[in-house]
Amino acid sequence: MALRQNIIVIQVPNKFTLNKILTYLHFRLQIEPDRKARNAAIIEFEREDHTLGNLLRAQLMEDKRVIFVGYKIEHPLFPKFKMRIQTEEGYKPTEALKNACNAVINQLTILSERFATEYDTKLYAHEFIDEN
User: Fold this and answer.
1) C-alpha torsion angle, residues 114, 95, 25, 83 (rounded to 10)
2) What pTM does this model have?
3) Which residues contact 32 (CB under 8 A, 6 or more apart)?
4) How distant is the alpha carbon of residue 60 from its chain centre?
5) Do residues 115 and 10 touch, judged by C-beta distance below 8 A?
6) Which one-letter DSSP state was computed for residue 1?
7) Residue 45 buriedness (CB in 10 A; 0-12 / 13-18 / 19+)
8) What residues form DSSP beta bridges with 68?
9) Strand 40-46 and strand 29-33: pairing?
10) How much of the chain exceeds pLDDT 90, in percent?
11) What is the bridge-based pairing of β-strands 66-72 and 40-46?
12) DSSP secondary structure, 71-127, as one string
């Protein structure tokens, strides 16, 4: 049984590159305070779609200090969405977004490490079987 040598590389940024990511996203984000609710912001993400929107929404919902989070894509042909985040007093929506980004990066790092471990284990198992 031959093992296919296709390797999938998952590039997950580490904590040190978070500032670079946030700087990169800064040019793709427009943040404005929501005038209809206290301690809320509307953040517009350029060149992103449901993949990032749903991932961030789910992570923000895990935060106990976030009161409301939702996003909408105004038109399916344009890759941008608006996210509304409302938080408790003393906790800024932008801080909640940064915390959610950190949590997603940590989860992706763990996923990448586990994937690499499983891949290596299967690779060694197939090499052992092929030798015998």
Assistant:
1) 100
2) 0.71
3) 41, 42
4) 10
5) yes
6) -
7) buried
8) 86
9) antiparallel
10) 55
11) unpaired
12) EE-S-TTS-EEEEEEEE-TTS-HHHHHHHHHHHHHHHHHHHHHHHHHHHHHHHHHHH
Residue-wise pLDDT tens digits, 8-17: 555 555 555 6
Domains annotated for the chain, with CATH where assigned, are: 15-117 (3.30.1360.10)
How many CA atoms are closer than 13 Å to the CA of 123, on its beta-carbon side? 10
pLDDT at 1: 40
Looking up tokens 């040190």 gives 16
Task: State the chain's mean pLDDT as an integer.
Answer: 83
Contacts of 27 (CB under 8 A, 6+ apart): none
